[in-house]
């Protein structure tokens, strides 16, 4: 299974837009029922299933968020990308993320690579 | 198992330096015996084992190569990074790669996300 790069980039942009303007449940609805989320990678916690994933996004909801896609690479049914996210106008993080998608375009896994050294206080 | 970000970045820089100045066998020697390599992701071919990996690098040896690390993110025992590689002064590719490492600092998997749209003719 494989998507055209433009289609994958559309999935990623929809995700980044929903993080800005949607609820935690809206973001979780972009994920497959049995999806996994690891953010940050190496942090020791993997969230499994849409309900756990909604819980993860609830932790950041409430703050004003902006997102910007900086670099995008397609790979079959996967995408790797660099993006910037600002939280409450107070800090900016620039992770590298890897996402996998199923045939319905749902996110089946998300892994975010970043650490304290990738956070800028604004 | 986890490495400090600086250590992981050192592993990645050593890899990029060896791609420039080493032989295919030198590069393969940075990989674990049972490592896997997928380049590009979604290309349908996964090279398994150090011998197959040496074969992959032999295909690009002979050309003059330059590499430059553009962005780096650490994640436990993994690294995600953006880099530029030029081949024979004729083309430049900017992949996003994800590498995993074992306790000895050997690469256990490498996955490179890029496609024709990420290649620039020089």
UniProtKB/TrEMBL annotation, chains A, B:
Record domain SnoaL-like: where: 12-109
Q: What is the designated name of this protein?
A: Steroid delta-isomerase
Pfam families per UniProt: SnoaL_2
Under the heading Gene3D superfamilies, the entry gives: 3.10.450.50
InterPro entries listed in its UniProt record: NTF2-like_dom_sf, SnoaL-like
Q: Name one GO molecular function term.
A: isomerase activity
Q: Which UniProt keywords apply?
A: Isomerase
